[in-house]
Amino acid sequence: MPYGETRIVRVIKARRPRVVVIGGGTGLPVILNALKDQNAEITAIVTVSDDGGSSGSIRNFINVVPPGDIRNVLVSLSDLPQEEKDIFQYRFDSKDSFFSGHAIGNLIIAALNEMHGNIFEAVQVLSKMMKVDGQVFPASNEPLTLHAEFADGTVEHGETEITGLDKRIKRIWVTDANNQEPRSVLPVLAAIMQADAVVLGPGSLFTSILPNLMIPKLGEAVRETPAEVIYICNIMTQRGETEHFSDSEHVAVINRHLGGNYINTALVNGAKIDMSKFHPEDYDEYLDPVTNDFAGLQAQNCRVITDDFIDQRSGLVFHDGKKVAKEIINLAFEAMSRKRNE
């Protein structure tokens, strides 16, 4: 640059992509932990209709939102030392009639709910204590009851009862403690509307993903958000929920409950699964690999991204969080670019 010439340099700092992940179950923390490593601005919206295990027992005793999925999500996004996270996750093996099987974190969440009067505030306080990188929001401020109508026209209530019948589910809906339509809270709706990517799954289709979308305002936000709506398709079919389902059938069920083709992109595993690594007890819940039906997905105006998305090192098959997170971030940046050009 010649002497005496001045140049104005504009430095534009790009913001982190805003990613909202909606769901519950064991697959959600895997994705969240990987997204955290991708430097995303993460909001996790967590299912509150679980009524089994420690969460169900606590819910029945003190009528609190089931804390198990919230606990696992908090740990996945926490910057605490591993030893402190292990304490939060510790599950009592005592034969005591109450503490047996309960995780310490579940009890802490229940206590904070009682102290602050609602689960949303309790989780925000605990998020600060646990140095959570991101936001963790319960889908609703109150425990919800899951209802299902089956293909044969019968109806059942409660997650455990519904999946235990091992019947084909036609549709599900949720109600609050007064058997009314449940409500979400404004920060949940704002996060969805401001997101670059809204991610559904992975997780149980009818009991971890759809219950959130059946909260009226939350489902409306997913329909109206300018974000890329992404579905991480399950790797295995699940007893009591998705026997013999293809990937396109998973997406079709979500779209049907939302009332239109709202899934923009599906992340689908294309790798072969080694079924010989499964133990007989694994078949109590998981059945067969989800089959691919790319034509069926495209017929729903759904873009398909397929890859070897599996991690089977431990025998059971999980999503490879790093690969999935990279695809989500790429899609989020695409959405950010579209917004700038509009």
TrEMBL record:
User: What role is this protein assigned?
Assistant: Required for morphogenesis under gluconeogenic growth conditions.
Q: What is this protein called?
A: Putative gluconeogenesis factor
Q: Which UniProt keywords apply?
A: Cytoplasm
Q: Give the family, as the similarity comment puts it.
A: Belongs to the gluconeogenesis factor family.
- NCBIfam families tied to this protein: CofD_related
Transcription regulation as a keyword of this entry, yes or no, is: no
What's a single GO MF annotation on this record?
A: LPPG:FO 2-phospho-L-lactate transferase activity
Matching HAMAP family: Gluconeogen_factor
Coiled-coil-forming residues are none
State a GO cellular component annotated for this protein.
cytoplasm
Q: Which GO terms describe its biological process?
A: regulation of cell shape
Subcellular locations according to the entry: Cytoplasm
> Nucleotide-binding: present as a keyword of the record?
no
